Amino acid sequence: MNDRLTVPALYVASIGGAIVLSALLVSVTGGSAFAVFDALVDGSLRSPGAWGLTVTTMAPLLLVATGAIAATRAGLVNIGQEGQLLVGACFGAYLAVRLPGPGPLVLVATLLFAAVGGGLWAGIAALLKAWRNVPEVLTTLILTFVSFPLLTFGLRRRSLIGDRDTTRVNHINSGEQIPFDTRLPDLRIAGNQIDSAAILAVTVAAVAIYVLERTRLGARIDVLGLNPRAAQRFGVPQRPVAAGVLVASGCFAGVAGAVLLTGGTAGDRLSFGYSGNYGWDGLLVALLARNRVLVAIPMAFVFAALRTGSSFLATTGVDRKMTDVVQALLVLALLLPAAIEYVRRARGGRQPVAADRPGLGRRLAPVGGEVV
After folding, report:
1. Are 255 and 111 in contact, with CB atoms under 8 Å apart?
2. CA 171, 174, 180, 185 torsion: positive or negative?
3. By three-state DSSP, how is residue 359 classified?
4. Neighbours of 249 (CB within 10 A)
5. Cβ(44)–Cβ(309) under 8 Å?
6. Contact between residue 273 and residue 148 where contact means Cβ atoms under 8 Å apart
7. Long-range contact list for 159-166, CB < 8 A, 24+ apart?
8. What is the CATH number of the domain that holds 90?
9. Residue 38: alpha-carbon gap to chain centroid
10. 15, 58, 73, 4: which is closest to 292 by C-alpha?
């Protein structure tokens, strides 16, 4: 079969198999597969205001995925987005309740300060990578689990949390409420309330697409990820570029944390469990998008739909955790064709080349000529 037909056929077969297996699992647990599917659609799209909430939920997932894709294309494995998101949210919350001034100005400063927090947290891994060549896959993961007790410590410290009522803080273990005028504004479209964070996320994704696909910096990132030796040959400063991309990836996750805080998706104050696995899910979105930011947009919407739709599963008698099972099966289904394609390439002796990135040679030409 022609390769152009084989890959789509594999995706159709894999997704179909995942849907059938999900239906069987629902049936085994005593539920109705059709009722579950109907409830998911109702909760994410059909019920009043549902698709607006889904689009709002998509925003932090897309921001995290965009940063993860940039890191992966540079040959880096950043899996610490959950911690970077959490630290970014802490930085943003700290500034939002302390900085005086007009609400819009404080909002912008909060988003920027959250980006700084996420970038600093990823910067620790970047520094260790550049200084001692410590694998970032380990440091980013370890730092994620360090961030959780840091949040716990911060929520118990009046000087950090910004709340004068220590009795209330110790009892509820939550931060001070973000002022209303420092929150992202909502848009009303066809009876749905959509947080403006969705526009921010799509805009950031569009900028990332342009940088990665059309600029010399994007070409340097690609060639570094495809072939570090070729990157050295074409004068790409490996350590600075790798470190910069890793820090930028953390900045994206940090902004996602501030979006959760100022957009109301996760509430208007910090609390235990605040990150809500948005970092992990955003990483999965990036993984399934296969390093394409444009593909990450619909993928983020699908994951957001599973999140919002799960709230309706109670009406079917099926535990809402079933959506995690469906999500896991979809992830495996979408990874299977890529794995088969990789094995076929390996058996054929084909290595990643510049042709895998359209226009890479042309964009690198000002650095040192065409990539061959």
Report:
1. yes
2. negative
3. coil
4. 32
5. yes
6. no
7. 160/94, 161/270, 162/93, 162/94, 162/97, 162/98
8. 1.10.3470
9. 27
10. 73
Q: What is the pLDDT of residue 108?
A: 94
Tokens encoding 345: 């390439």
Per-residue model confidence as pLDDT tens digits over 244-290: 999 999 999 999 999 998 886 666 778 777 888 899 999 999 988 88
Q: For residue 267, which phi and psi values (nearest 5 degrees)?
A: 100, 175
Domain count, the chain: 1
Q: Which residue has the higher pLDDT, 82 or 172?
A: 82
For residue 263, which amino acid is it? G
Please state whether beta strands 192-195 and 186-189 pair in parallel, antiparallel, or not at all (unpaired): antiparallel
b/e map 160-199, b = 16+ CB within 10 Å: ebbbeeeeebeeeebbbebeeebbbebeeeeebebbbbbe
Residue 361's domain comprises: 3-368
Both structure tokens of 6:
């084989």
pTM over 0.70: yes
Burial-class residue 128 by CB neighbours within 10 Å (0-12, 13-18, 19+). middle
Question: Is the CB of residue 108 less than 8 Å from the CB of residue 258?
Answer: no
Q: 3-class DSSP state for residue 122?
A: helix
Summarised one tens digit per residue, pLDDT across range 70-116 is 999 999 999 999 999 999 999 998 898 888 889 899 999 999 999 99
- Determine the Cα–Cα distance for residues 80 and 293; give it in Å rounded to an integer: 19
Among candidate residues 176, 178, 162, 177, the one with its CA nearest the CA of residue 107: 178
Tell me what pLDDT residue 127 has: 96
Alpha-carbon gap, residue 281 to 62, rounded angstroms = 10
